[in-house]
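Lay summary. Proteins are chains of building blocks that fold into shapes, and those shapes determine what they do. In this project we predict the shape from the chain. Here is one chain we studied, written as its sequence of building blocks.
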Amino acid sequence: MADIIIGSIFLFVGLAVCGIAGIRRRSATRIFAWLGIWSAMYGTVLLSQSQPLLAVSPSWVQISAPYANTASTYLLAVVGPLAFLELSLGRLRLLLQGSVFVGMAIAVAGIAFFVFAGSKDKLVIYDSLLAACFLVVLVAVIAVPGLSSRYLVLPNRGVLAIGTLIFAIEAVCNSLSVPLGFDTPRILDHLGFAILLFSFGYVALQLTLANERRLLSVENELAIARDIQTSILPSGVPELNHARISAAYRPMTEVGGDFYEFIPVDQNRVGFLVADVCGHGVPAALIASMIKVAVQTVAGCASDPGAMLCGLNRVLSGQLRGRLVSAAYLWLDTENRCALYSAAGHPPLLRWRCGKLEQIESNGILFGVRPEFEEYPVCTMMIAPGDRFLLYTDGVTEPQNANGDSFGESQLEHIVRSNQSCPALELSDRILAAIRHWQPASMSQQDDIALIIIDLV
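And here is the predicted shape, written in a compact code that computers can read:
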């Protein structure tokens, strides 16, 4: 009856821990999954060898119990090292991986002997020897502070050291009891294993809580970083005679590497800059913030896109640390009805005019390739009421659907053509909605997005 009760407790606790780890689905909870499997297997061994329980069980349980018992017995020596693998470092990790490999080989061979020859204990001696070697190494590493700090990730060594030592003492006493001619109560086996699991679970919980606190701190810092990045972007769009402007920015993560800026001179003239830092996340966001500073140093060249891009390339190249940046710059003069455009390895400017969507390319090399590069070509265009310009980063056209097809300029042209009478702000919203709809619902945003739409009226 004690075996049935204790086995049920181990099995229930193990399954519950595995369930919690499965719900959480984080790498930090993997240690609890192995801990739960370890406990459930131990409970399975106890229950599957209880004759009173099997006598009142269905026939399929009685048939499968010996197989479950044999598999769990052999695999206990595999799951233990897998659990401690989550806490190990360096050579100890390699040693545990080797122990897992050897244990799996013994388990497969032992289970095969049982299935095909009916021999349940054929390789149990080797399995026990492997478990004993694993326990000796573990006790040595945990007991010596220098070794534990070098080879284990332990927020609290004392608890695990005590639990492992108690289990080791109980295992040694149980091994010596038969040769010395005395019996040890089976309850001590269960108690020793329970203490080991408890100490291991305590350390795992501390480690998980520390990781959760660290993750929360990182999330808070990312939220602050996003607020800072939002503050360096324009707070609104410039008021321009004969033009309506819309701007949208959607980072893939908390912070992104896309950037846009307006350089207004007066109510008739303004410059539009869009840039895309290769990569994502905090490193790209830091470079995007540097672009903000660089723009201030070359703002005097606002009316000359070629000089503007040359200046930005010269200022940024020494700070990019191997990263590359694409950019596009549009200078708009509504009084003289002209526009100037130049780009650095950026997707083409789109102009909607007279029922046609034109791609305007005037590209030089990316920022960060050659600091001295000064040959950014400039395209001059005459503008008229009804013209519509779209400046964007590749996060608009590169998202893929479930079939791997990119959103592309064709989809973008279709949306612009279908909504030619919509104001700039509404068109921007519809483009972003179409991109979200294009991607599978289970897939998050694939790239940072920046989009500026200018309507001439």
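What the prediction tells us: The two ends are 88 Å apart (CA to CA).
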